[in-house]
Amino acid sequence: MECTVRAKLSGARPRRVLGGLVVAVAALLSPEVHAQTVALTPPMGWNRWNHFAEKIDDATVRKQADAMVSSGMRDAGYVYINIDDTWEAGRNAQGEIQSNQKFPDMKALADYVHSKGLKLGIYSSPGAKTCAGYEGSYNHEEQDAATYAQWGIDYLKYDLCSFDEIMKKAASPEAAHKLMLEAYTKMHNAILKAGRPMVFSLCQYGADHVWEWGASVGGNLWRTTDDISDRYDRMSVIGFQQAGLAKFAGPGHWNDPDMLEVGNGKMKPDEYRTHMALWALLAAPLLAGNDLTTMSPETIAILTNREVIAIDQDKLGKQGDRAWEEGSQEIWVRELEGGAKAVGIFNRFDWPQDIEINVAQFGVPGGMKARDVWAGKDLGIVSGKYRAHVPGHGVVLLKLTH
Ligand code: GAL
Q1: Residues 345-372 pLDDT 10s
Q2: Is 227 a catalytic residue?
Q3: Distance from C-alpha of 226 to C-alpha of 236, rounded to nearest angstrom
Q4: Set 57, 164, 227, 321: catalytic member
Q5: N or C: which end of the chain has fewer CB within 10 A?
Q6: How far is the CA of 24 from the CAs of 8, 151, 189, 192, 194, in angstroms?
Q7: Euclidean distance between CA atoms 189 and 30, whole angstroms
Q8: Ligand 1: does its nearest atom lie under 6 Å from the Cβ of 122?
Q9: Distance between CA atoms of residues 215 and 213, nearest Å
């Protein structure tokens, strides 16, 4: 489906031949149909914000794309290279958005990223200014989407930022909410009209229960929280507070608890394994947020663990949820294809604990084959009780199959 729609909607040739017809078909796609064409599993890639913040340019992005390939991340499933904020200059006399001197030729950059088998993501705001104070898309939505399509952009993160000021002037909270929905819908329609499939990533920090309406405005993912940071306390608060949101996610529309911090250096390896395991159980987008050119073998091993990624990318697309908690101990379960289950046994204390789970509690009274995913070890059939030794701030991630 993705390929068919992509072939129909992208590229200069079919547009020239079919002219307005293709644009018309794109305009007819409902948010639901659009959601079926991209992000059928949670998007995987890299975003430069967590590590580089405002220090970014064309050369750095190219080096990250190179490293995504040479590190094996591309082959493990990472695809998007996302520039995020601060690439924008002003507009030309025709009102077209221009990239600033850090990005002299966005189309050439997209061509380079595509030549590596990767895709390029960009960033804007429905407001007049982005969060870092650069040019936003307010009143230029169609023009910007058309420019992105022409450059070859594959992903747009659309960050509320200064649109907040417009919302503040609304007559009531309900009217402000409506304005926000309209602003996201407007850009979604502009993307459809531009005729190039792009993942549409909503960023408004989880306000107004975005999970309840994110898909209806065309969102393929929506941030459920404010920004993450490279600290266990922040990462774990965000991750564990995702409980209860599972029913809002599915193929083409995902809850986004923010980008990964794995490899940024301020958490211990066990904490990064918790981060990665929790995000996989949550069917969260896996957008690495570290410098891919300087990764330790341990960081690469965490980010490219095929079995953890397979849990995240499971085709059933069912987000996991908390099954049990007591004090510092939590059990999270995710249903996978073919009746398999992923079980995360989490220890939120800073010292090791033995945590016992009752396998029958997860609907498998007859016992299931268990594999310790991070250890890469088969554990044989488990039934009844299973006792895991879980490191401080760590996780034992099990995959149970019949
Ligand atoms: C924030 C957003 C961050 C980053 C930043 C750029 O609002 O949550 O992820 O995109 O803006 O200015």
Answers
A1: 999 999 999 999 888 877 666 788 999 9
A2: yes
A3: 13
A4: 227
A5: N
A6: 12, 21, 12, 9, 10
A7: 9
A8: no
A9: 6
Per the CB < 8 A criterion, the answer to whether 388 and 357 are in contact is: yes
Integer Cα distance of 142 and 151 in angstroms: 14
Q: How far apart are CA 188 and CA 199, in angstroms?
A: 10
Distance 85 CA to ligand 1 centre (A): 7
The length of the chain, given as a count of residues: 402
| pLDDT tens-digit map of 28-72 | 455 545 545 899 999 999 999 999 999 999 999 999 999 999 999
User: Is residue 132 lining ligand 1, measured as CB closer than 6 Å?
Assistant: yes
Report the predicted TM-score, pTM, of the whole model to 2 decimal places. Answer: 0.91
**Which atom of ligand 1 is closest in space to residue 157's alpha carbon?**
10
* Burial of residue 319, with CB atoms counted within 10 A of its CB: 0-12 exposed, 13-18 middle, 19 or more buried: buried
Please check whether residue 220 is in contact with residue 39, taking contact to mean a CB–CB distance below 8 angstroms. Answer: yes
Question: Is residue 227 lining ligand 1, measured as CB closer than 6 Å?
Answer: yes
Instruction: Give the helix/strand (H/E) hosting 399.
Output: strand 395-401
CA 398 / ligand 1 centre spacing (Å): 34
